[in-house]
Give the backbone structure.
Amino acid sequence: MKGKLITLEGIDGSGKSTICSRLRARPELGDFLFTREPTTDWIGEAVERAIHSDTDNLAELFLFTADHAEHIAKVIRPALESGRNVISDRYSDSRYAYQGMTLCDKFEDPMEWIQNIHRDWTIVPNLTILFDIEPEIAVYRCGKRSEQTKFEKIEFLEGVCANYLRLAEQEPERFIIVNTDRAIEKIEADVIKIITSLF
């Protein structure tokens, strides 16, 4: 691949999407393609419907995975092969961390099981910035939204945080952890420094 893939990960309310929006307004970063998961195409819309309904957890995982596969085929891979750098707000690690929790009653090690599903076909990011925050603070932030999802509960997010940290331990050369219980301007400055250091 000629281009580089950077992913932004973290629990709901960590400030990840806010920072992604601010990065879009930074042309000095270079020619980045900004994208996200779930995507905005029809599979991504199906994922959003599943999130806000009583969908079976295994069915939900495979909707997320189908959306990821389409995202790679239609957006990520073509951009990287053309030499463009990509920043994705959520990517495969979100699946490992979140669905690793929703499926904890079905498998002995659900996160490893999900990772194995993705092995050999997903594109591993060059850099993943993990937005780290206490679940209590994240849930307080989410509480300001008009509608909360099943993923925005403290107990659930504690497990997701643990999964994210486990992923970071597995691949310390790929993950950089950023504390996001700070002023947004300081977080943005740190993220920009991390991204530019990759180049």
